[in-house]
Amino acid sequence: MPRGEKSKYTDKQERKADHIAEGYEERGVSKKEAESRAWATVNKQDGGGKHPGGSGRKSAGASRTKAERSAAAKKGWATRRKNQKS
Fold it and tell me: Please, which residues have CB within 8 angstroms of residue 16's CB and are 6 or more apart in sequence?
C-alpha cells in the first residue's frame, strides 16, 4: 500500500479527519498541513485503518505457534521461580 493511501480507513474515520482538518483551516493552517495533522490525529486515536487486511495491531500471542507460546510460558515460569528464591 503506497504512503498516503486511505482505502483502509472506515467512513467514520474519514469524517473525523475531515472535521479535524476543517478546525485547523479555521485557525489559519494551510489546507495541506491541516489534512496532514488531521490524519495524524486519527491514527493516534484509532491506531490506523480498521478495514480487514490493514496494518492493525494484533496481540503478541496471536502470531506465535502453540509450541512457541508454551516455551515462552515455561521460560517465564522458570524466571519467576528463580527470582522468588533470591
Answer: 42, 45
